[in-house]
Amino acid sequence: MPPVLELKGITKRFPGVLANDHIDLTLEEGKVLALLGENGAGKSTLMNILYGLYKPDEGEIFVRGKKADIHGPGDAIALGIGMVHQHFMLVPVLTVTENVMLGMESIKHKLFLDREVAARRIHAISEQYGLDVDPYALVGDLPVGIQQRVEIIKLLYRQADILILDEPTAVLTPQEVRGLFQVIRSLLAKGKSIIFISHKLKEVLEISDNIVVLRGGRVAGTALPQESNERSLASLMVGREVILTVAKEKAQPKEPVLEVENLTVKGEGAHIAVRDVSFSVRAGEIVGVAGVQGNGQTELVESLTGLRPPQSGVVRILGKDVTHASPRVITEAGTAHVPEDRQRDGLVLSYPIADNLILNTYYLPPIAKGMLMQEAVIQQHAERLVAEYDVRTPSVMTSAGSLSGGNQQKVIVARELSRPGKLVVAAQPTRGLDVGSIEYIHSQLIRKRDEGAGVLVVSAELDEILSLADRIIVMFEGRIMDIVPIEKATREDLGLLMAGVHPDEHSADGAAIKEAA
Amino acid sequence: MSAKDATHKTAKNKMQAHRSHKRWRTLLTPLMAIVTALILGAIVIAVTDISVYEAFQQGVGAGLLRVVEVVATAYGAFFSGAFGNPARMVRGLSIWITTGDGRAWVQSLYPITETLRYATPLIFAGLAVALGFRGGLFNIGAEGQYFIAGLTTVFVGYALTGVPWFIHAPLALLAGILGGALWGVIPGYLKAKTGAHEVINTIMLNYIAFRFAEFMLDVGGPMARGDGRPVSPFVQPSARLAQFFPSNPDIRFNIGFILALLAAVFVYWLLFKTTVGYEIRTVGQNPRAAKYAGMSVARTIVLTMALSGGLAGLAASTDILGVIGFMPNAFSSGYGFDAIALALLGNSHPFGVVLASLLFGALQAGARNMQAIARVPLDLTDILQGLIIIFIAAPAIIRALYRLRPAEGGEEVVMTRGWGQM
């Protein structure tokens, strides 16, 4: 029996870039093929070719042994190929049924939408694959994980049997990832075939039957999950040995650079996001803030950096009260801030890299003399930082928006860490980045610590906290559950703290239950 | 030259080379848009001419010949109305050289000076809207700012007496800048402090400005001339802007045009060479990043609207002090609305706005001649302007027509973001 899908020698050139270079892939029926690669390795280009959004310059596509000409998504859908994009294509104000039937509506009396027929089919699909989606729910009210299932239902409704999932876990919580994997397994059991695009090694090892690693537009290698491990995949992906654990000396903490006392911050709307929080960060140490997303970390960072005025409490940087200071005062006090959302807060995407590298020093000499910007100085400053911080770009005049996520983050890290400063506040510094960039940014944060700065790292990735931090603050519902030194931190205890449970209480409870039994 | 200077220089050259390449790419689409609009305009001229149909009844050859004739006459008249008749210019020049009488030469320059005169207020108003776009603000209020500035300018122009021209004219201009700026600051402040959308508020302030001007200038109003007409008194001669050809009263080309060019250079310098411009552009592109970078978003919005209003005000000042000499009540200029098209056509770049304004000025001047000579209605100008704007706003049409590749980094039309994003 021929494979469900076969790509042979796919090549795609863009001006100045060879995005795909003679790529071959084979997808067998009922299997998961993982497509692994760093940002910019050519995964998305390849999938867009398969989905008919790009035309390949060379190469052929075979679906179930027959040569296929795909000129647009319509052709792809007709061949049973469906794609769940990383950013969902859903209309939030419509119901699940309306979203799913969009583009192939059931009609009654020639004029009216027949929602009932569509809803019944959606219900049936939902039952069949264990998706558990209410056809009448408004999409905007659904959590991200369920919205993703709506996308999958859209494909199944169109009778797709080759499903492309583009970075499906990037937006999910660990629990939702587990749910998605169950859905994938039930899809496979019904004979569907899946291409799973990711750069998360653990997930790829867990879910896939076959792994193809792309690097620089070429197939760097193929692997079977049972014969691979994270280290071997990472080095295939990056093209060299990768250090997955961060090498660092023991911290030598000195005087406090950031002191927070009884800080309370309001979130959006009226709810209290940060409740009566006190801690300090000392020079020469990295303090990690762990917690499930949405437990006050964002608001905490915003109020420390002047973007959100606190309700009450005191913030001191190097002994100076900056509780109600503006972002500029806090920056000038020697604070570097790597913001949580790099595209929304940290960059002006339409600006060239050079102009982004001066975002918070544009008014200071030597960048500006009086009110005159010094173009040559800005250019040299940019070329120096781009070289020093390994930003991969054709030129410093390239717009920040055209860089990959990893390189965008390097621009921000270069700008923030190149300034002399005693405090670094880094929020989700490696979210969505590939292994090579993560490794690099971690090493830069540690370098800054070793140079004597205090570093506060906020991350939803427990692995990141465990490998970087010297002390760990765990937040839950706006409060600090505990502050744990790295020597005493275990993944299990931190997990319980993140869920709002003190490990001692938990074991006490456990004991109590045992006794009762 | 030291080694350091040399590296400075190469760095600067590289940057400029990159930018000039980009500039050429951005010029191509507007150019092709204009050409396409002229071709479609020719079709409109041909199909609306009765003589073409009559000629076609005699045969296809005669019909096609007539089409060529009609279009050639119309565009010929259009060209000579916008730029002048080359034969008359040469004749005028030779009379001037042989006899020393320059009157015919000056008269032959009338069309091109009309183009420049029409372009002058358009440049100011276009710069006003373009600056707003750069700052993320959609200033639809240039028209209202124009009216308020007209009142302040004309008041200083006629009420102040006994001061020399080199004080009076600048003061009257300044009054216009301040009047326009005031009318710009109001919606700017409302946006910065309350988030009220400037599109709504500038439109509403337009109406207030129109009615206020009516109240001031109507017969019996505080600023009416008192001769039974709803117009202001004439401004003092000392407030008038210098004319280039004072000997020929037909030609109303004045120093206002030079001021408009200087304003474009100033806006360019401010936007791209100064920290203030960097703040304006950053707030325009990404207000959250501007806040993160320590800029005062509110202050920058108010400043942008003040500058924008001031520029719109200068459109009124130069019109009144340079051309009309007083302010009529029924004064609907339409500049404020053309300005939006100009900013779009010029891609919100000051020099682009100047080019676009010259084009619109030429369309205005040429169309009048075309109506007089070829009997093609003035309204063809509106059709041409409309077509050009459509092609600029939808560059995909032009690219598909001429098989152009999209500019690298994608299309970049500088306009404000959507509604209510802050």
Which range best describes the helical content of chain A: under 10%, 10-25%, 25-40%, 40-55%, 55-70% or over 70%? 25-40%
Q: What structural class do you assign from the helix and strand content of chain A?
A: alpha/beta
CATH architecture of the domain at 113-374 in chain B: Orthogonal Bundle
**Molecular shape of chain A:** globular
**SS strand fraction of chain A:** 25-35%
Average pLDDT of chain A works out at 88
CATH topology of the largest domain in chain A: Rossmann fold
Amino-to-carboxy terminus distance of chain A: 57 Å
Biggest interface pair, counts: A-B, 37 and 28 residues
Main sheet overview of chain B: none
CATH class of the largest domain in chain A, named Alpha Beta
Number of E strands of chain B: 0
Radius of gyration of chain B: 24 Å
Tell the overall outline of chain B: globular
Rounded to an integer, what's the Rg of chain A over CA atoms? 25 Å
List the total number of helices of chain B.
17
| Count of distinct strands of chain A | 24
Descriptive report:
- The complex is a heterodimer of chains A (517) and B (422).
- Chain A has 517 residues and is an alpha/beta fold.
- Chain A contains 18 helices and 24 strands.
- Chain A folds into three domains: 5-238, P-loop containing nucleotide triphosphate hydrolases (Rossmann fold); 243-334 and 420-517, Rossmann fold, CATH 3.40.50.300; 343-403, no CATH class.
- In chain A, 34% of the residues lie in helices and 26% in strands.
- In chain A, the strands form six sheets. In chain A, strands 6-9-10-3-11-12 form a six-stranded mixed sheet, sandwiched between helices.
- In chain A, strand 23 and strand 24 (479-485) form a beta hairpin.
- Chain A starts with a strand and ends with a helix.
- Chain B has 422 residues and is mainly alpha-helical.
- Chain B has a domain at 113-374: ABC transporter involved in vitamin B12 uptake, BtuC (Orthogonal Bundle).
- Chain B contains 17 helices and no strands.
- Chain B is globular, with a radius of gyration of 24 Å.
- The relative contact order of chain B is 0.17.
- Chains A and B meet through helix 10, helix 11, strand 20 and helix 13 of A and helix 1, helix 11 and helix 12 of B.
